[in-house]
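Re: weekly structure request thread

Next one in the queue (125 aa):
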Amino acid sequence: QVQLVESGGGLVQAGGSLRLSCAASGRTFSSYAMGWFRQAPGKEREFVAAISRGGITKYYANSVKGRFTISRDNSKNSVYLQMNSLKPEDTAVYYCAADRRSTAPVVDGSEYDYWGQGTQVTVSS
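Done, posted below.
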């Protein structure tokens, strides 16, 4: 089992940047594909970005492509989401998730086994 703890959220003006971090417990972090999702008030949870176990393959939602970058450091049991050129519509609670079965990035949230508690990102206009 793995526990995930997100950090790095906050309030930022439109056009600004934030870097989210997700720290995982356990010694098998490198065996999990990882993803970031978000949920805005009154909306369904949506996929943001995902990364393969080794960090080579990455997928992004069209809405964040070119602005967000997912990365991981298996030596630090961590996955990151660098968010640039933030927009008010990026406001949401951001969650990281771990998938223990897939080697490739996973877009479908129902495939993930473990979730963090979330971190709030608010982008003001």
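The longest strand covers residues 92-99. The radius of gyration is 13 Å.
Next request, please.
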